[in-house]
Design a protein that fits this description.
Signal recognition particle alu RNA binding heterodimer, srp9/1, 17% helix
Length: 134
């Protein structure tokens, strides 16, 4: 029996806003695309048209996302974040502004000793992003 190679993929669980988040993220990163998306149909577990399962890429890195059909008592937490190594200051500033819009600033852009320029935000969906100047 042939084994599938083990792979670790970040999995994001939304409650009805997965497609909105994917569209937003894809607009911010190069080499970004929806690889596959399956939506709930009429009579499905989740509201019709919401994301049952999606696979997408940002900067070539694969992610998965769903819209949970079940309300739960938890959301995203900054204890787990997406860390982006930015190639230049303009990219860092652009991502920080876009991801922080209608979100929450956790660490303002600045020099923190470990980096000449770094910032940390929760986006409007609650996903946490650390942005660092390489």
């Amino acid at each position: 029996m042939e084994r599938t190679p083990q792979k670790v993929t970040t999995f994001l669980m939304f409650e009805g806003r997965a497609e909105e988040a994917l569209t937003f993220y894809l607009s911010l990163f190069e080499d970004a695309a929806i690889v596959a998306i399956r939506r709930y149909g009429a009579g499905g577990q989740g509201p019709e048209g919401t994301v049952e399962h999606a696979t997408f890429t940002l900067a070539g890195q694969e992610f998965m996302a769903i819209d949970s059909p079940v309300a739960h008592g938890f959301g995203f937490t900054p204890a787990v974040s997406l860390y982006v190594q930015c190639s230049d200051e303009a990219e860092l500033d652009r991502l920080y502004a876009a991801l922080g819009e209608d979100g929450k600033e956790l660490m303002p852009l600045g020099s923190y000793g470990f980096s000449t320029k770094f910032g940390w935000v929760n986006d409007r969906f609650g996903v946490s992003w650390q942005l660092n100047l390489a």
